[in-house]
User: Fold these one by one.
Assistant:
Number 1:
Amino acid sequence: MDYAATREEALARIAAAQDLDALEKLRVEFLGKQGSVSLLLKTLGAMSPEERRSTGPQIHALREGVSDALTARKTALEGAALEARLANESVDLTLPAPEAPRGSIHPVSQVLDELAEIFADLGFAVATGPEIEDDWHNFTALNIPESHPARAMHDTFYFPDSDTEGRRMLLRTHTSPVQIRSMLEQGAPIRIIAPGRVYRSDSDATHTPMFHQVEGLVIDKGIHLGHLKWTLETFLKAFFERDDIVLRLRPSYFPFTEPSVEVDVGFAQVNGADGKSRRVLGGCGDAPGHGWMELLGSGMVNRKVIEAGGLDPDEWQGFAFGIGVDRLAMLKYGMDDLRAFFDGDVRWLAHYGFSAFDVPTLSAGVGAGA
Amino acid sequence: MKFSLSWLKDHLETEASVEEIAAKLNAIGLEVEGVEDPSARLAGFRVARVLTAERHPNADKLQVLSVDTGDGTPLQVVCGAPNARAGLVGVLGLPGAVVPAGGFELKKSAIRGIESNGMMCSTRELELGEDHDGIIELPADAPVGMAFAEYHGSDPVFDVAITPNRPDCMGVYGIARDLAAAGLGTLKPITINPVAGNHDCPLPIRTDDPEGCPAFYGRAIRGVKNGAAPEWMQARLKSAGQRPISALVDITNYVMLAYGRPAHAYDLAQLSGAIFARRARDGETALALNGKEYTLDAEMTVIADDKGVHDIAGIMGGEHSGCSEDTTDVLLEVAYFDPQRIAGTGQRLNLTSDARARFERGVDPAFLDKGLDLLTQLILEICGGEASRVVHAGTPPSGTKVVPYHPSLALQLGGVAISDEAQKATLTALGFGMDARWNVIVPSWRPDVDGGADIVEEVVRIHGLDNIESAPLPRIDGVARPTATPAQKLERKLRRAAAARGAHEAVTWSFLPEADAAVFTEGNGGLWLLANPISEDMKAMRPSLLPGLLAAVRRNADRGAAGLRLFELGRRYLRGASGTSDERLTLGLVLAGERTPRGWDAKNNGGKAQSFDAFDAKAEALALLAEAGAPIDNLQVMGEAGAQFHPGQSATLRLGPKTVLARFGMLHPALLKKFDIDLPVAAVELFLDAIPAKKAAGFARSAYAPPALQAVKRDFAFLVDAALPAGDLVRTIRGADKANIVAARLFDDFRGQGVPDGQKSLAIEITLQPGDKSFDEAELKAIAERVTAAAAKLGAVLRG
């Protein structure tokens, strides 16, 4: 028998098989129990040793050749089938994917987180107090007695209610009552910032009846105006990420500080990429094209306030400051309408808000780039 | 406080420029809000001579002038002034100039067919006076062609904000004193020539309210002529923003603005009997010279005569007893009023005035006689007349304040070293005295100074705050510790979690319309309502974060938004103990309108838009609670989310029966209608204060190694009463064999074919975690029996 010719013929038929079914039929025909190659293999048992020695390898070679060809052809046919199926499954990937909603963090929250981060580095904790305050904490303890002209300056929102100690309830006009609460609750030394909502009966383009303030308070031994100046410089440099922040200190008056200091900061009028002229903090306000803007009020805590906080003013002294948070946000991030902060307009929030993952950190920078 | 440079120079000998003065004022705490140069408004006006004046051919009252402006070429100008004539030197406004009165720009024009190249101006048109009878006539030798601003002279006006602690600087003299102390010139002494008076005051002066009015000094001046005040005084007053009225009134205003000493001049003819200070009677009324009637109370002081009230003391004079053009005899009042009395009265009457601003801050109690002398002197000079002798009723407070001080305090508190000599010089220049041991005597005009810190402020502000060197705060030793409290960390985490889940953070008003707030108040002791809201829309403190968010939803929907995810994390305001407030951190989240817009993919709801539903709210609530570290597997879903919610599609999430961590669901359609919202809204409110704080036990987690053997899943289907909450069955099954069942998950809720009416089929997949060895058949069977037995307690029957 011409095994080689049989092999060639089988391989040709395998190569010609057009699908897996046809291939399977060939497998049965050649290698099935009654397959032609299988039957040839069975003839080996009846052969003489010499015959087997000469014929055996040929039959085995035939079986292997057929088997390998079947496997190879199967792989090829399967690959082609998969390719055909996949070709059928193609989709237009320019179609829109399901939209994942994108949320945002409000600029006020973002800036409050930035402030907390910067001041934590200077050893300040965050303190809070009630917004519905009593007139003792908001005024009297801060050295603003009844019928003091400064009370009228505050445009206070009052409630008709009094607490059980007869103190008139009101909406705090500043975050300064937290000074008193912190001193009374934790004693000295103190390093805190106290951010939060404050309220004044005032409404126009640059004033809203509710806004945000952050109070700073340091009570310790030997604290003086130089420390105040350094703290404000350090904070503002870190906040605006600029080394050229220049402050101008002016004497002023706040009943709860003595001496009292109004702080101006130098700015440059700069044309932005959006064609809008903005004040950018930095540089000396006296330089050409520069100016000074009022930024915050501060001073050395008045002895009477330290006493109201239950501390001995001969032992403890310190400084306090208060600054508008919304204003800081506007200066840093370029919003120009305070009223939009409280409108909840999703278009505005999407534009000026921050990614949830823009968490201010010292290493990555506390500011979030546009 | 406004004043002109020339007025300042009445009191301060100085060569300093306007810029230097402004800079120094700022540096010493007298904040300059602006420096206005009135002459800047005269740009484009020129001294000009009328060469010829001809009758206008088309108008009887107009003339056609040829005007020499110094350029060589005369201009033709049409003019209607009766005094326009050849040879007159006046003021010509050229085209382009803006006329101060009226603010219009002059243009080249034709008047009745004749070209006119400008306008000859009257005093009133340039706002230099009231005269409008004709055009300005300057002296014949006035330099033709000179800019009129230059000819008229520049007298810049400073506008300075005076802080409430500085009544002494509410007069130009006090400002001059501060500037002199700061080295900007020499303070000129006040020249006072006391007038003794040659007759007795014709009516008695008393103070019957020595508390409110400790001192009332006065005198009469008879035979005065009350015309217009002299030009120089009018100019001073105008620079201060005051309208000149008549000489007598202007003189009292002038002394107030120059020396910070308010006074009042009565028309003696309108007074009867005696004049005196007394307490007002409750309900008594006073007609003030602003034409308004005020109802007074017994805590206020008035100046009255035997017939009735004239003045609201220290605040405003009376309508009927002020000086008029006909006044011939005048009575001067120079009094000292208790600052608190004036402040209280002014606040209650809501009445402000220049006098009040000074009295409530505290005028110089040692300046009454001087003030009276200055007034007398000016009246005699300007209005003539004869002064009576002075009547002194009562005495002003006279104690001298002495503050023990030590110059080292400047460094200790102010952080700047200033020599003893320099400190002494500053204090002396400001009028302070001192003994050898630094006991500092406070001048009578400085009621604000009563401690060492005040003295530090004086020497430091005059020395210059810019000289303070920055000094680093000492760094706190040791490892940096976190400063945020657990509550603060929770707040920050939740805020960012909500934003990461796709919601925009809003910050909305703390106050709401009362009606909006009222819908959200339930058993929290009532709303906090403002007594003086800025508007009715901002009256009630929010008892929930949802109404503010709903108002934002409405605004956004009105702008065309179809799907919204908004949240806010802030306080809600409840009633607390002892009449205080109870402010609780709350997260409000609203999901309004479309969760998914219509799309191309038909497999998704047929491509139709899908609205948010209660399960979206539940998913947010649970996800946020999980971030907050709440044990969400142990939470119970219970009803009673509140009347604001859809009664059948809302619930609370509780830890135990009482602690409500959150409420969620669809909002009630009636509520949405009330808020004018057409979209369906799902909402969540998370109560941060109710979330149990995680116990901090260091950084190490409890020990854990993933089990070696694979978990086994088994499905069960039960027939239960249709009203049985599925969650109850899931919880029960999960608890049926705590040792082996690690999870139970519902995957089918079926009603219909094969399920009897009034029942439903719930299918639950349980996950079993083997320990050291795999479950054998007997164990699996036993677990399944425990599951069915537990379910049976809820009436659940295993489906065959």
Note: Residues 23 and 71 of chain A are 10 Å apart (CA to CA).
Number 2:
Amino acid sequence: MARSVDRRPGFSRRAQYGIFTGYVIAVAGFLAGAGLLVVSIVNPAAFSSVRGTASELARPAGEASAETRATGQSVLAAIGAYFQAGRQNAALSREVAAARANAITMQALENENRRLKALLGIVDPAMKPIAAARLIGSTAASARRFAVLSAGASQGVRAGQPVRSAAGLIGRVIETGPGTARVLLVTDPENVVPVRRACDGLPAFVEGKSDGRIAIRLINMGVNPLKLGDVFVTSGSGGLYPPGIPVAVVTEVLHDGGVGHLASDPADADFVMVLPVFQPAAITALGASQQAAGPAPEASGDGGGN
Amino acid sequence: MPLPRLPDLPRIPARPEDIVPQRINRAPSPLLAEGLPWVSVMLASLAAFSPVIASAPVVPPLAFMVFLGWRMLRPSLLPIWAGLPLGAFDDLYSGQPFGSGIVLWTAAMLAMDTIDNRMLWRSFTQDWAVACLLLTAYLLLAAAIAGLAAGYPLPLVIGPQLLVSLALYPVVTRLVALLDRIRLLPLRKV
């Protein structure tokens, strides 16, 4: 096939100017885009209001598809359940018997815990969830991992609040619009969560690898004590995430840490809960002290350059 | 005008052209003919609001592929600056830092212009090869920009996504070709 000839304007001045203007706009647009890119890398929150409005506009479509997802999954699960009903029934009966014994032990421990806490005078802050909402969209094509939530500032959602599903931690809110909010998922490399091993409290932190898994890094170096199947829960350090939310299960042990799978896959979560910040006073104090200490040297260099 | 006969009613036309029975004295609707490329690219950008909440970048960059498909099928339909508005719209939903779509889409349009000027003959294989080149460059640069914004290099994460995109490109071109036939349906009475 020969190329099309309609790009050769001939002797028409008007057509020639039209093509020239097109090139000028394209090059100017490229340069403007580069400028916007620098602005948004230096200050990631710069265009959050525009993004918020865009998410608001797409919200009905996202909610409809979120409902379709839930229905589709339940249909598939119902079909799958027929194939393994017998085996599952036996396994579940055994599990229920074990869980019943555990529950009684737990109840006793909880009572004892409450009594001991009353003795020491510790009062836990009441963690009432701020909103329950659906995840209505995600950045499936980009290397960054964001999701969009169907609740926003009008429901009391603020930036910085943790988001969890029934099974575990999903991420934290980074931008809010009136009726939607953008969530930074745990699998994003920018999201670092302090955790501890559920069985013995071994401290560590997890960091997203952007490919659906998360890297578990130990705080104490030395012999790697991780084993396959270890469960990590949030530790509450840092004051952002409340303690005890499951985050990751170790699936691969490396020489200096491990790689884990998410405790709660965002694709499976039907509804998610937005929780209040665990220790708002501590976060404010930390921010104030960082501001008082001044910016880091390379950050101030960047600021001078722009 | 004759009434439709009963056996004809449930038949779904095999070709989009069959939807419009009368072709004489008709012309394409200007709104559809001009607007469909833009709307289809923007709808592909909205694919982020799909039922899949992905934990990894697995979905191919559909909007960019549809954009390239239109550019290759009808070189003069989208103006050379079309990357500016369409890239900006894609940035709102893609999760990339704002501006990365504008830069990369405009650069792709300018690159396609250069390629068109250099190569006098076009074929499907060549279009696919050029698309492979542009898609690879687009995904690598987009991941590099995202890594820059996150302060974390993102190495082999985009491998599967890239392979899926390259394999899926011919399907997207077929889809764009179908949309092109819908675009030119003679709906308006002259």
Note: Residues 86-124 of chain A form one domain.
Number 3:
Amino acid sequence: MELTVDCCLGVSTFCAANHPVESCGSNGLPLTPNSVQILGKFQSLSQLEHPNLCAYVEICRIQHERVIVVAEHYSTSLQTLILKKKIFGLDLQIHISRSIIEALRYLHSKNVVHQNFHSKNILISSEGGVKLSAYGIYYMTQSSTLVSFPIGYPKYLAPEVLLLGYDPSKSWLDKSTVCDETLTLYSSKPKSDIWSLGMILLEMDVLSVVVEQSVQPELKEVIESCLQVLPENRPTADQLLKYPLFGSRFNVPAAVFKFPAQPLQPDLLRIHQLMSKLPLSEVYHFWHLVGGDVEAELRKAGILRNKPAIFSLPCLVLEEGESFGQTKDRTTLFDDSVVEISLEALLRRLQHLPSSVFDPLMDDVINDHQTLREAAQLPLVIKEKDIDYQLYRIVMFDKQLRGYPLTRQAIVKEAREDVPPFCRARVWAALLKVDPSYSAMYAAIDKETSHSSDRQIEVDIPRCHQYMDLLASPEGHAKFKRILKAWVNQHPQYVYWQGLDSLTAPFLLLHFNDEALAYACLAAFIPKYLNNFFWKDNSSVIQEYLAKFSHLIAFHDPVLRNHLDCIGFVPDLYAIPWFLTMFAHVFPLHKIFHLWDKLLLGNSSFPLCIGLAVLQQLRESLLESGFNECILLFSDMPEIDIERCLKDSIEIFCSTPQSVTFRQHEPPSVSPKGNRSFWDFSLIGSNSTLKSERCPRISAEDFIELLDLNHKRFARPKMVVVDVRNANKFQNGAVPGSINLPYQTCWTTDGTLIPCEQVEQLERARGKIVCVIGSSCNDLGLKFSEILLDLQWPRVCTLHKGFDVLLKTQILVVPAAVGMC
Amino acid sequence: MDGTDVINQALASIIDTELVAKQLEQAFKDEILANASSEQVSDEEVMADVYQRVLLSPAVESLLTQEYELSVQMQDLVDEQEREWQYLTQRQTEELCYAVDQLTEVEVNEISVRHCEERQIFESGWESRLVNVQETQKLHFREWLLGMAEIVETGGQLPIRPEDDFEQVASDPENLDIPSVFRLEESFTIQLGAQMKQSHNLRLISADVLDLCRLPLTSRNDPQRLQMALSLYSSNQSGLVLLVDDRLSAYTGMEKEFLRICRRGAELHFPRADLQLENARNTFSANAFKWRQQISNRRINELESNGGQPKTKTPRLGDMYVSRHSNLAQVHVVFHLVSDDSVRSNEINSRHPVLLGLRHILRTAVVSDITTLTIPLLLVHELSEEMTVPWCLRRAELVFKCVKGFMMETASYGAGVDSRGSGSSPTLQFLLPRDAADEVFHALAAMLPGVFRVSNPLVLRSDAVR
């Protein structure tokens, strides 16, 4: 569907009803503000898609319980046509009626009751399309129970609606305890919409009677059937469409009814043509990026007015919380006006963009355009607000995502650059390799049966990232619960651990309207990054992970590691929530988004590097602090610069041999290099061994790769090898270029190295990876490396299984050659 | 009951359709702008609008001068009254002394009766004189303002004020240098929230609570006056919590002192402070008392217990009433919170009614766009013997912790964090009595970061963005 020239954004607003002071829900927590509930209900409306409905685009809430709704809009309505006495021929009447009924059939099939019929809410596009607007307000306000004003126009309302619904006190409905049954019983039904439809058709027909001097019998039949007093005697929308009037006999192309709109300025035609292919929600996103502000638009139009706050103060507030003497603020009354926002300003802003930006796969757009290339270098938060750059990225990702799963590689490549917020939801799903058939899989999972973890889930959800309105809405809670229950039911080998809720939050927020996809992402994420973390007894998994984290700290930052060891501030005290939730428990969601954008591109060891980068960002405070201060510092995560943290963690990752972070519990590797069985690296021993060692081990495979004897990989050697076996053994065979510092003889009495030529050689290599090779039959290699660590020596590791592991390789050389060079 | 039922009932006249129609009409009138009766803008609001316009025009200086002069007039008058009162009491004391020494008991009694009458005559005479002047001032100001607004609107020539000659005096920098009423002050930026952290400003101050109200009247162009005038009708007003007794009386204690201060400045926008107080008293004895009775009746019915039926028509501990002012130094809105001697105890906890009242005040402040709120940190305005240093620390810790809880609670009253606008908690000023020892102040300044989390600045190194 293309956007027509006269399509614009319609902005409307209303206030949610305030909860009575001091009321709380059945769980004892304060009630969710009604505006937040409306936000949640709105979400499914934004998913409705029908040619005869104005699409809902966005909702936001501002102060004083006010919400602002943005929707597709056209300036011409049925009311304007009626007022302007446009001739209503039968063809036109049938076209309009059929369109409305089609829209109603769709709405009713989605369990949405319109209730808000009015000839001004039936809009006509320049192409003659008939589109209902404002049809969602009854639905999003939960049958008007979330607002204090009545919804609908009495002239069009069905008799039963008037009789039932408009008891102003809504005495049948104690809002704090409204149960679903009462709600369903008293809220309006689809049949009430049919009456309203009849009233609209009658209004239209009355006009045509004047013009054409005769009532169309077919139309009369339709109207009469709609205006039956008893709801059950009225037809459904489906039945109405089967009336002969709507048969093919009258099927006239809509083009006949064009109402030419104000033509667009010729210089904007090209960009309009390009933009019209984008979905309206995307266009709105761009409008927002160029500085569009719905609240300001409403203020400008005089719809939003603030009475000076000093006049709305109460006169008296009792200790019980009840207040007196407040007058009703007129500015909070319901105003059905819609403010039209033309998209022309946006088009004008974008008109300099070359057409190639809209076809990014054909050309190398980024290199052709200086400004885009420059924007790509900007900090993340800035380029996310750069309209040109975002437009280019979004259009590009749109194209790639349409080809998923075939285009997965291309998506990964682009995601390494950055992920535009608008596309994040779909990009993440692609990065996690979600199977396109996820919906059916989710549908098949039992999400209802009660489970032993239900209570904990019930407790955790209302405490999880509740500052996000969507996650705080009842709608959000319900989805949250279903996803968690689905995961628990689907993974009997695992249990619900607190933290799973935090892991779910980012996916739920991104895929709020696609619960199945949120689940699919979660289900793909956990085995990739948190393999076995959700075992009932997960201590071995976590201990291994933390031991590796300690090794990583020692490897990259011996000073920090030694300090933390010295004060006894071990990772067990702070890092478990980091890794168990992949930081989702410690950072706000907007930071998690940036963090996971990169995390999802890394392997299961990458989070360890992020952990280290976080520590390093706080390095100075940590080094200055004792145990208590450190505990206090991490009890509430300090501000972290995520972009820098990610840059650091990528550097850490690239400069860490893979085997340093290798874990027994890491997910089975799929990369060709992952097969380490030959070197028998996997079994280091128990976690206690792992924990007792303070320096990491590396595998022989990594060792040979880093040694790079043929100088293939690195221009300059990355690693220096220290052989701590005694001189005799060293003479019998050693690694080329290795330094022999026999453990027994190289130390002074105060624990430093006795200065000699070899030590100088080692000193010169400071900063390179130092791999200590010991004998396979004792742990002197490890001891040596730990002493180096004590001496604040960076990047120290030992060769796993010692010297013997190299015997099978061809690299060993005769000793003399080594000693002399 | 579904649609068919209700229609059948209506057809059978079981439902009073007339009544339904009436209710319907009322609902539409009450809640929908298009159906509401045409806008009833109060006189106050009209004047607020005019005032704002003049304030933002070149006539702002004349406006402030007007206000200043009217306030000076008021102040002189009150000073005169107080002088005469002093004179009167002095004379009477002397007479009485003489009488006690020299005259018979009967004669002394006669004299004191006469004195009493004299005082009453004096008070009522002055009272009506003050009220008269006040009303005249208000009328005068109103006319002046409307006239000025018209001049501003039509682009007319602003009147040249004869007192322009004295401008030099006013702009003398020494006159502009107003001494702060805060004896000690320290500011903190704190963060609240588990993951999403929101910054708030807190300030610890030591001052006399009434000094925040007392208008200095030092110069025509006091920048603070301008600031207060600009924010009067805006969405960032200042509030103050004043602890008062339950008598709501204008003749005793803190309330008396407060009203005296209010009287000294020209109140050109709102009803006189004593009228506002009376209004609060009436609202209480009418509406609030009735509400309380209903609640307790319901409770009695439910529980069959003879729980405390409200007996007095006066407010009780933890209730508060609100007054609005345009003539105070740093405050637009005063929350009069009813307190009693129980707050002197060392044993009060977070459920104490005064703390509950404080919670309602914070909530009211947030929804009413009050962006600076001053709270008596120790829940008293004056220190006494038993309020030792440990007592102060203990009390401050309780109030800090409670307020932190209230702030987290009010976070939900604002707009969501992902949407625009910040409906966050106001800047809070924790007020210590002026006579609190420096030692206490510094101990509390040290305690505050332990209770609230002082924000950790994000240090960006130069290599952060490469």
Note: The domain at 695-820 of chain A is CATH 3.40.250.10 (Oxidized Rhodanese; domain 1).
Number 4:
Amino acid sequence: MTALLEVRDLSVEYTARDANAPRAVRAVDGVSLDVQRGETLALVGESGSGKTSLGRAILRLVPAAAGSVQFDGTDVLALSHDALKAFRRRAQVVFQDPKASLDPRMCVGDIVREGIDIHALAPREAGDLRVAHLLEEVGLSARDAHRFPHEFSGGERQRIAIARALAVEPVFLVLDEAVSALDVLVRAQVLDLLATLQATRGLTYLFIAHDFAVVERIATRVAVMQRGRIVECAPTASLFSAPASPAAQALLAAIPRIPW
Amino acid sequence: MTTGAWHHLRNDAGARAAAAVLAAAAACAVLAPALAPYDPTIQPDPVALRLLAPSWQHPLGTDPFSRDVFSRMLHGARVSLGVAAGAMLLSVTLGTALGALAAVMGGWVDTAVASLVDVLIAMPRLLVVIALVATFGTLSPWWLVVLIGGSGWLTTARIVRAEFRDHLQREYVVAAVALGASRWRIIRRHLLPAVAPQIAITAALALAAVIPLEAALSFVGFGIQPPLPSWGNIILDGVDYLTSAWWMVVFPVGAVTITVGSALVLADRMRVAVGGEEHEP
């Protein structure tokens, strides 16, 4: 079986505007990785290691400086305008801070509905029904469609963000620190939701995290990132029992022992 | 404007007073033909009724041509505030469009708009308009709207560009991009609603800037042409009689000052309301 996502030698550069001369900073430096259909690949590394840039470059939310991204056999970095729009239906993202990632001026129904409208997936009333089903699927109520993001708790907001991503029926989700900002109990509930959704919808996840705390629970395989490079990639069990790289050993030693 | 800021503004005495003054001025302008006791251009008796001091017959006196200053002030409000409102709308629309375009398109479009702003901001607005009038002869009120509005969009463009660029980085906009939203959709659904309060503030400031500009142009004789009254040319008619007929200058200057002051107070109170909201948890 071929991988759903094949990343080869991907690099992302930013121009740092220093006092004197602008210089290119390599946030992602020649990364290669595969994500198999239906699995969860965890991408773990300390802050600034390039995880978010890598996730965003895969989704073409930031430009790649070099390399290739193959998604289900098509070259993501070469997609035309229309093909890119079709790709956006299949690959979605959930960000870390749902307070920042939900437009505070839109009601929840409009937020979740946005993807349905963009891709013309349903006419008016059918769309309302879909929004209601999506909200129920992520553990909220259909009545919540008329409320605004600030009326919800952090965990509920993250559920709204997940519903928004699911609205376009993607097969692949980049979960960019999607549970990192949540407190422990809420985090466990959202992880349960993500596991359920993966099982029912056959989703594939790229799960970005800055520590190993929740990775053991959700990941099939783990890739460890350090200074823009992947230093180790192994099945979760073997990485946890015998980490090879110093970066993985350091991250493993830093796991807070919280009883689930 | 979001509901929190809107509530704040509605309960703000200063904002309500300023809005009431502006509404009253607008009502005078709209209802001038019904409110004015005399025809503003007719000269009933340039000998007997010339330069009369304020009285019950003529509440704001008469001018050197025996016309009723109160009636001319009301009709002048129609012209002055009409030109000001038109110029304000034009400049805010242009500024919003160009600022949005620069922020969203980036690249050479951004550079081009930024350069245009830098060049135009270096030009003294009043002198540029005077030079244009000198080139093309006298102007109709419509051309005044175009000239004043067309030269006043710089501040709005700068603010809209900066605010748009800030919001373009935010995750809710990145999420919309990830959903496949077009640039136009992102502008319409996310960015314009986000920046609407700032645009409203620049609109109030633009109004405060264009009212004296029109008055100044008409005062130097390049704006609204007699016999059509404007607050600026009423002052011009009276300036030769400054020591003997104070009412010809004091009332129009007062009208300009009060409306401009109200627009400035409103802009300031809006800024407080919007700022206060951003500090809320």
Note: Chain A touches chain B at residues 56, 59, 61, 84-85, 88-89, 92-93, 95, 97, 100-106, 114-115, 118-119, 161, 164, 168 (CB under 8 Å).
